[in-house]
């Protein structure tokens, strides 16, 4: 057990209700280590070295290093293995995908050797910066805890339904609670399926308070990704000062399906009888965004190859649409309804039955955090290149807005105070060429956790979320190595990347008497293997 102190009818129905959480802001704000095979092989630590297409998205001044034209594309074979462990039960899921990692070009325009402005370069690069493809499963006992008066409390998602309904008058529900802006969908599902019932003083009770749950099962499937399209102009001054700016456009699509199931004891016999409920939730987020990235590379000593890189990225300004639907099937009930006591009684609540067969949707704006980057680069002749980089991003500064630009006050307060924090990222890379045509590369990247251990998914009372699960991700490590061949014009690079990250998963959390409660954490490890092949030509 985790205990923490603390607009119109179209293809879907648009509702101005509470929705997003701190976990959405983080999910759409961070980026994978992707790009050209050379860039990935060096751990992405090329902000000061430059001369690679993928630096267009980290330090735009890196494009100013180019003295010739370049065109390249990358194939990315991606394998993700997700292993989970809960109450002695272990599960493993895998997914494999082949992507275009990037495709782009650089046009190097030489101005002259006598003026201080030597080159004005232009570049474009497409890059897949985030993959959401992932599956996870968990199952086991929910557990029980006792308060100071030795009174038992049962852990159940129905307690979240109950809490989100408390304070609502019984007359509030009406014939269609799913279309009321002050009623959350999770509580509406619970009420319509008789998993929660109205009591006195507008306080509700949960079926779990009379019939104890004994286990749960959870499955999730995520799909989609974020594509980044960068347009760059950069300048070379006297081969010692390089400056660049990149305008980035983003295309985001995210699908999430979850199946959550709770089974209960027969309180008359004390044995599991298999009755319970299952909840299917489907969510899709799609939209576009834009940002600006500015960068500078300085070679402070005239006769030294040592370089310093500085870059800053504005927030990505997303305009997004979130669509959702849910189906709850239950053979449980609360006695106050006077329902049959036969355990074969079943009730199905499908949100499509309440919304004319359409998805509910919410349009909103997401502003990701600012990004700050400092990098160092050093070369020894043409045989050795060393890169190091530090990046900072404060996820607590993520902000959500309604379509008209007004702030989502409650959600943004959770962003500030709900357990998100600043993340430090360190990158290091090395490239060694025993002969000019061949190169060996290696790199490492480390990113800190974006969440405090006490972070929870706190659903607003009127949220149309029906999936209550959340994961607190921990540190991320990327290990990379690769080889490269370069001829007179043609070049080819091959890289292997291994990423590992642990997280603590919870199917729900609910607030009671000043304390957040949830089942014990499911320990999850995501291991990703990638093979990247870049083919390019410089001329």
Describe the secondary structure blueprint for this structure.
Layout: E1 2-5, E2 12-14, H1 22-27, H2 37-41, E3 70-86, E4 89-110, E5 117-131, E6 134-140, E7 144-146, E8 152-154, H3 158-165, H4 185-192, E9 196-198, E10 204-206, E11 213-237, E12 241-266, E13 271-298, E14 307-313, E15 317-330, E16 347-350, E17 359-367, E18 371-380, E19 384-394, E20 399-401, H5 409-417, E21 422-435, E22 438-447, E23 470-486, E24 490-506, E25 510-512, E26 515-518, E27 522-538
Parallel strand pairs: 2-17
Antiparallel strand pairs: 1-26, 3-4, 3-27, 4-5, 5-11, 6-11, 7-8, 9-10, 11-12, 12-13, 13-14, 13-15, 14-18, 15-16, 15-17, 17-20, 18-19, 19-21, 21-22, 22-23, 23-24, 24-27, 25-26
Helix % is under 10%
- Count of separate structural domains: 1
State the CATH topology. Porin
Radius of gyration using CA atoms only: 27 Å
Largest sheet: 14 strands, antiparallel, barrel
- From the N-terminal CA to the C-terminal CA, the straight-line distance is 62 Å
Q: How does the overall form come out from the CA principal axes? A: elongated
- Unreliable spans: 1-16, 336-342
